[in-house]
C-alpha cells in the first residue's frame, strides 16, 4: 500500500525534476543570449564613444564659421596696427634725428671725442685685483 503511493510520488517528483531541469536549461540559454547581447552592446557603445570623441576633437580643431570671421577681423586689425606702429617708429626716428641735430650731438667734434675717456691722462690704472 505504501509502495504504490511512494512510486506515484517518486514519479511525480521525477516529472517535476525534469520540468525544473528544462526550465534551468532554458534559463541558462536565455542568460547566455542576454550575456552575448550585453557584450555586443558594450562593444558597440565603446565604438560609438570612440567615434564621438574623435568627432569632438576634430570639431575642436576646426574653427567654426563665426570664429573664422572673427579671426579675419582680428587679422585685419593687427595688420592695420602694424602699419601704424611702423609709421610711428619712422616718425619717432626722424624726430630723434632732428633733436640730435638741434642739440649738436651729431657734429664731427662730438664724434671725434667719443673715445676721450680712453685718452685721459688722469685715468686710473688697472690693478692686479681688477684683472682677476
Give the structure's gist in a few sentences.
The chain is mainly alpha-helical and 132 residues long. It contains four helices and no strands.
Describe this structure in words.
The chain is an all-alpha fold and 132 residues long. The chain contains four helices and no strands. It has one domain. The N and C termini lie far apart (128 Å).
Salient structural properties:
single chain, 132 residues, mainly alpha, 4 helices, 82% helix, 0% strand
Contiguous runs where pLDDT drops below 50 for at least 5 residues:
none
Span between termini: 128 Å
H/E element sequence: HHHH
Give me the number of helical elements. Answer: 4
Q: Which structural class fits the helix and strand makeup?
A: mainly alpha
Q: Work out the count of structural domains.
A: 1
Described by strand count, sense and barrel closure, the largest sheet is: none
Calculate the mean pLDDT score and round it: 84
Radius of gyration: 49 Å
Number of beta-strand segments: 0
The helical percent reads: over 70%
Question: What would you call the shape?
Answer: elongated
Tell me what portion of residues adopts beta-strand conformation: under 5%
Amino acid at each position: 500500500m505504501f509502495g504504490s503511493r511512494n512510486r506515484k510520488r517518486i514519479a511525480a517528483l521525477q516529472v517535476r525534476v525534469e520540468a525544473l531541469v528544462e526550465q534551468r536549461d532554458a534559463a541558462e540559454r536565455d542568460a547566455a543570449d542576454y550575456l552575448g547581447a550585453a557584450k555586443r552592446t558594450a562593444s558597440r557603445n565603446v565604438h560609438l564613444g570612440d567615434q564621438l570623441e574623435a568627432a569632438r576633437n576634430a570639431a575642436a580643431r576646426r574653427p567654426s564659421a563665426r570664429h573664422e570671421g572673427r579671426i579675419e577681423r582680428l587679422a585685419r586689425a593687427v595688420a592695420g596696427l602694424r602699419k601704424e606702429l611702423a609709421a610711428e617708429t619712422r616718425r619717432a626716428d626722424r624726430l630723434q634725428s632732428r633733436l640730435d641735430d638741434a642739440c649738436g650731438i651729431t657734429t664731427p667734434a662730438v664724434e671725434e671725442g667719443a673715445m676721450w675717456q680712453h685718452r685721459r691722462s688722469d685715468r686710473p690704472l688697472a690693478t692686479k685685483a681688477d684683472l682677476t
